[in-house]
Amino acid sequence: MNEAEKYPLSIRDLCFQYNSRNIPAVKNVSFDVNPGEVLLIAGSSGCGKTTLMRCVNGLIPNAYHGDIKGELKLFGKSVFEMAMAEISQEVGTVLQDPERQILGTYVLNDVAFGLESLGMPPKEIFPRVDQVLKKMGIFYLRDWETFGTSGGEKQKSALAGVRAMNPRILLLDEPLASLDPASAMEALETFRQLADEGLSVVIVEHRVEDVLAINPESVIYMDDGEITYQGDRQGLMDVVDYTRIKLPANVVIKRAKNSPPPNFEPVLSRQADTEVLVEFDDVSFQYDEDLPIVLE
């Protein structure tokens, strides 16, 4: 077994430049992902995170075209030599907006879509769909119309469709973007469980503080298409620019105290004789005659 075959995902010196751009979107990217590992890829908008994900799931070079260099292997086989159908059985992708990957009118049909695309007979599809829905705790959604589900339920349905295909690598593109805090934590606990069951889970996310709560084994920070940090979660909090990603509040307070952000000017305490900025004097308002609202 060569070095690349040890890992579900192995990337070496990856560079990609879109045909429509004059500079590379990612450059000199190298890392490996282990089985049962959560990898967090963080960085501000435009840093290359999404392009990197497209390289892993085969959208580059099959749907997005440009100049690509380097090596990217899934279980020892080059992604660039694999058909999309083959890649999709190894790599499952959940998009930032789950509505973009909902294709069925009912949850049952939507979760079954990928299996139908692979030509699996119905007598095998429906038991597998039911099994996944039960495991994810959303069997009650089975016969619901997809348009009637909430944002969190749509994401769970999209994830169920991916899980039904039994991929060994799961890519999550900003999965918390449209979720409230409670739903986000529930989703993160699911991702952690999947990794603990042996999947390689790659999370591309702005809400770094939330993902750090599930203790990702590895963290990558990207800036301008390059990896500027690669290591554990504690190292990330010690070195990255805390004004560009959301870190835990206690970390930000500590670092800001020791190293204030550029152009920072402390706010002086307001004196008793400071000029009043806003003043209300006998203000009243009402929406209609029956709903008076008075501000005094």
Q: Which labels suit this protein?
A:
12 strands, alpha/beta, 296 residues, four-stranded antiparallel β-sheet, six-stranded mixed β-sheet, 22% strand
Description:
With 296 residues, this protein is α/β, with parallel strands linked by helices. 31% of the residues lie in helices and 22% in strands. It has ten helices and twelve strands. The protein has helices at residues 49-56, 59-62, 84-88, 107-117, 122-135, 151-163, 181-196, 208-212, 233-239, 249-258, and strands spanning 9-18, 26-33, 38-42, 66-74, 77-78, 91-94, 169-173, 200-204, 218-223, 226-231, 284-286, 292-294. It has a six-stranded mixed β-sheet, sandwiched between helices. It has a four-stranded antiparallel β-sheet with strand order 2-1-4-5. α4 packs parallel to α6. The radius of gyration is 24 Å and the shape is globular.
Layout of helices and strands:
Blueprint: E1 9-18, E2 26-33, E3 38-42, H1 49-56, H2 59-62, E4 66-74, E5 77-78, H3 84-88, E6 91-94, H4 107-117, H5 122-135, H6 151-163, E7 169-173, H7 181-196, E8 200-204, H8 208-212, E9 218-223, E10 226-231, H9 233-239, H10 249-258, E11 284-286, E12 292-294
Parallel strand pairs: 3-8, 3-9, 6-7, 7-8
Antiparallel strand pairs: 1-2, 1-4, 4-5, 9-10, 11-12
